[in-house]
Amino acid sequence: HLANVQFHFADSVFARQFEQGKFVIYRKCNSNKNWRNEFHVAQVFEPYDHFNGWISLHSYVHFGVNDDPELPYQLLPLAKRVLRPEYKDKEGRSFSMPSKVQPTSEPVLHDFAPGEIEVLQSGFLLKNNKIPANIAQAAYEAARGLDGKR
Q1: Neighbour-count burial for 110-149, b at 16+ CB within 10 Å, e otherwise
Q2: Measured between alpha carbons, how far is residue 36 from residues 96, 97, 144 in Å?
Q3: Which of 25, 55, 79, 115 is surrounded by the most beta carbons within 10 Å?
């Protein structure tokens, strides 16, 4: 029973970080050697799913003026990114220009379980498609704090 209680506690702590419609800054915990330097931004798409144990996030990206999904935007300073929701066409190609959205376009969603991401900041809104400077700074400070514990 102790394992179930610990899992439920971790699940609840993870779930409390997400408010539907608000934004999060996070890092994906994976085998990519650069994951600690890649900061992602997303809007909470649906409330935390306690039954399946995941959160569904709608990716927001900085593809630049040419809407280039190959741009390594995850490495750009957070406060300099001009963020737009990421969509994919029926062939699966990503884009973010509002003029390209069609009835067949789908939002790019990512589902994460506890332990798959490190949430650095959450519960904020974008201002003019940008992360407020104080939120960006707080995300960097949170990342440094987490990295210092390793």
Answers
A1: bebebeebbbbbbebebeeebbbeebbebbbebbeeeeee
A2: 24, 28, 10
A3: 55
Six-digit token pair at 67? Answer: 């809407």
Contact call for residues 72 and 51 (beta carbons, < 8 A): no
Least Cα distance to 27 among 124, 140, 129 occurs for 140
Residues 6 or more apart whose CB falls under 8 angstroms from that of 79 comprise 130, 131, 132, 133, 136, 137
Question: CA triplet 36, 52, 120: central angle to 5 degrees?
Answer: 25
CA-atom Rg of the chain in angstroms: 16
> In a 3-state reduction of DSSP, which class is residue 89?
coil
- pLDDT tens digits, 10-65: 577 888 999 999 999 999 987 677 778 889 999 999 989 888 889 999 999 998 88
Distance, CA of 42 to CA of 63 (rounded, Å): 14
